[in-house]
């Protein structure tokens, strides 16, 4: 339900109400400044502003930021101009969002902060024009500290939308680090940054020594391709949503990345994860998700991958395995499968959610079998651990 | 005061059926002199809008197709190096004269702002271009001027009507979105699509037109990789008309054979076997 500001009693004329409307949109997440309020008046001057339908269309074209904002605008418009929204109770709407993002079971851990927050929202004046700005500011600070907190929490507890989005963003950054590889050599190019003097000179002989044709050269990009193999078996259930978001982020960086899920079988989920429509993507994934949360056969999955999809691997491929290494199949198959992938792929990285735990030792048979074939075995139990991978990946 | 209905009617006269919100966005873009960003699925006629607008405004259409790696020398201007070199050798031209308009190669953006009459500038698929280029575009879209170090700043003589289109390949920056008006163009509903088909193919049998639109609308609700757009729908209509089909139910083979104009991937063609199409047609008849 969108938040609504009541018309302040002192609001006079269209300009004041317009400013109020912009503030109302801003409170609901739009990024609008004072210049936009003036634009709004200019836009209304171009149409018959007394007709609500026209005013709505005009302001929609002006203020909707993107496709989502476009759909949400009508509700926000009604909420403000027709008082159809829900009344805000004391504090700003962002506040409520954070509350709902936090599972109830954290209450005990965040006791102190909770108290501080109460005090602040009480101190917030009721819907006064100037007070609102302050309330927003303090909310901003609260979110910042909370997100710090999120980053250190074990991924098992992160199931809400915000942290999934953050996992996706972290992964997208990682993917960029991995992808941006430049060759040290120079190659001739139509539009490079440098002139290719040798070729220019050679070609100038035909023109009587005039360097008439210019040739360029550039450092070609040699992007790494990413292949993600994510474990969605029973022991990984608690992590699988975050890892799915993480895989989705990794996929977003370039179009050649591939993603697979495995439990007892291996499934290619690249098209589903690439779907921009997240709702439809979730639908497609859930169709494929039979067997989510069952047993795992890591070795079998790796062998199937090498058999069926081995041809997508090359020396510039980074294979990322997301798994805890608990496996019901034969452990030696894990080693064999990885060895086969190893021969074709550039790098293999194993991200293990258990590895970040205090006294973790790689005793699982599958992990032991895998160890000799890995370039890196890294922890992936918190968002900050995932973010810290950036440095590790840059070195690979 | 001209109104957006006026814009809608004039667009309709060129054969473009614009929805309410799109017509309003275009009307405002022209009235306020702001760029208009259009988003929406492929094949809903985003590029076509610019062409229709150019026709309505009786203006020249200048098009910049964006792609990965598009740079300033392709989009804005470039010095004609060979000509400069020849001029030095042949005529002994002095240095100051070398960097003059004579040796400047105008690319679409510079071309657009140096027109006498306001042109329509279509920046197509802006999300394919790199972020650096998007940043470059900001100066042009807010001030309508281009700075050439050797020549100075060139300001627009007439403000171009700018239309940007995006397909959602990547997210656009907030700075760019802030400068633009926005309209989301979705697939037309049944009535609107029928109107489009009537406007574009007036000679088509009404019953066939209704069948075409119903089947295409139903196909869009299926889980396809590439949903058929308006352009595909028109192609299909042309194909069926060309084969002399007057009623789909009478010519299932022709319908199946012409589906290639609608479904462009192997998976999608597999998803629409003859029985499904027959069922869809059966609903109309």
From TrEMBL, chain A:
UniProt cross-references to Pfam families, sorted A to Z: VWA_CoxE
Transmembrane parts of this sequence: none
Segments for region (Disordered): 111-146
UniProt feature coiled coil, ranges: none
PANTHER family in the record: BLL5662 PROTEIN (PTHR39338:SF6), BLL5662 PROTEIN-RELATED (PTHR39338)
Protein name: VWA domain containing CoxE-like protein
Taxonomic lineage from the root: Bacteria, Pseudomonadati, Pseudomonadota, Alphaproteobacteria, Rhodobacterales
TrEMBL record, chain B:
CDD domains referenced in this protein's UniProt entry, alphabetically: AAA
Domain spans labelled AAA+ ATPase: 32-186
Coiled-coil intervals, chain numbering: none
GO MF terms, alphabetically ordered: ATP binding; ATP hydrolysis activity
InterPro entries: AAA+_ATPase, ATPase_AAA_core, CbbQ/NirQ/NorQ/GpvN, P-loop_NTPase
Entries under PANTHER family matching the protein: MAGNESIUM-CHELATASE SUBUNIT CHLD, MOXR FAMILY PROTEIN
UniProt name for this protein: Denitrification regulatory protein NirQ
């Amino acid at each position: 339900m969108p938040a609504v500001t009541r018309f302040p009693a002192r609001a006079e004329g269209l300009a004041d109400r317009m400013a109020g409307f912009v503030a109302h949109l801003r409170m609901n997440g739009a990024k609008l400044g004072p210049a936009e309020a003036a634009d709004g008046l200019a836009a209304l001057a171009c149409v018959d502003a007394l007709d609500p339908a026209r005013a709505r269309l005009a302001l929609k074209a002006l203020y909707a930021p993107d496709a989502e904002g476009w759909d949400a605008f009508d509700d926000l418009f009604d909420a403000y101009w027709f008082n159809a929204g829900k009344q805000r109770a004391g504090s700003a709407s962002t506040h409520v969002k954070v509350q709902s993002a936090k599972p109830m079971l954290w209450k005990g851990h965040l006791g102190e902060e909770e108290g501080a927050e109460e005090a602040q929202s009480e101190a917030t004046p009721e819907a006064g024009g100037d007070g609102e700005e302050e309330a927003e500011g303090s909310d901003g600070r609260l979110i910042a500290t909370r997100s710090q907190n999120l980053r250190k929490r074990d991924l098992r507890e992160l199931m809400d939308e915000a942290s999934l989005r953050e996992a996706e963003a972290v992964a997208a950054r990682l993917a960029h680090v991995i992808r941006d590889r430049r060759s040290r050599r120079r190659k001739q190019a139509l539009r490079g940054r440098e002139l290719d003097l040798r070729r220019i000179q050679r070609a100038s002989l035909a023109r009587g020594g005039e360097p008439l044709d210019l040739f360029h050269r550039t450092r070609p990009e040699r992007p790494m391709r990413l292949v993600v193999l994510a474990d969605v078996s029973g022991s990984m259930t608690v992590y699988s949503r975050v890892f799915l978001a993480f895989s989705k982020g990794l996929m977003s960086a370039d179009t050649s990345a591939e993603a697979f899920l495995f439990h007892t079988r291996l499934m290619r989920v690249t098209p589903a994860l690439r779907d921009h429509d997240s709702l439809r993507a979730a639908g497609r994934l859930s169709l494929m998700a039979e067997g989510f949360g069952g047993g795992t056969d890591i070795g079998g999955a790796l062998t199937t991958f090498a058999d069926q999809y081995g041809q997508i691997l090359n020396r510039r491929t980074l294979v990322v395995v997301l798994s805890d290494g608990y496996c019901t199949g034969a452990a030696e198959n894990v080693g064999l499968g990885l060895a086969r992938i190893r021969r074709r792929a550039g790098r293999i990285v194993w991200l293990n959610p258990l590895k970040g735990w205090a006294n973790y030792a790689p005793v699982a048979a599958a992990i032991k079998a895998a160890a000799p074939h890995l370039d890196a075995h890294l922890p992936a139990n918190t968002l900050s651990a995932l973010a810290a991978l950036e440095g590790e990946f840059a070195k690979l | 005061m001209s109104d957006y209905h006026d814009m809608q009617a004039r667009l309709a006269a060129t054969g473009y059926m614009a929805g309410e919100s799109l017509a309003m966005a275009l009307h405002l873009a022209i009235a306020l002199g702001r760029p208009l960003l259009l988003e929406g699925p492929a094949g809903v006629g985003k590029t076509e809008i610019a062409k229709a607008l150019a026709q309505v405004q009786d203006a020249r259409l200048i098009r910049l197709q964006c792609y990965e790696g598009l740079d300033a020398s392709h989009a804005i201007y470039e010095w004609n190096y060979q000509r400069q070199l020849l001029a030095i050798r042949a005529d002994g031209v002095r240095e100051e004269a070398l960097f003059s308009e004579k040796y400047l190669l105008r690319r679409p953006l510079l071309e657009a702002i140096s027109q006498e009459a306001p042109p329509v500038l279509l920046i197509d698929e802006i999300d394919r271009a790199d972020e650096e280029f998007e940043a470059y575009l900001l100066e042009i879209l807010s001030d309508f001027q281009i700075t050439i170090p050797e020549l100075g700043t060139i300001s627009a003589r007439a403000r171009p009507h700018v239309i940007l289109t995006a397909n959602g390949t990547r997210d656009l920056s907030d700075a760019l979105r802030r400068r633009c008006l926005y309209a989301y163009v979705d697939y037309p509903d049944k009535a609107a699509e029928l109107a489009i088909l009537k406007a574009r193919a007036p000679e088509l049998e009404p019953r066939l037109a209704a069948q075409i639109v119903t089947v295409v609308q139903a196909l869009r609700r299926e889980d396809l990789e590439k949903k058929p757009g308006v352009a595909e729908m028109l192609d299909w209509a042309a194909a069926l008309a060309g084969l002399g089909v007057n009623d789909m139910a009478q010519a299932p083979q022709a319908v199946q054979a012409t589906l290639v104009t609608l479904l462009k991937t192997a998976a999608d063609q597999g998803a629409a076997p003859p029985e499904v199409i027959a069922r869809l047609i059966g609903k109309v008849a």
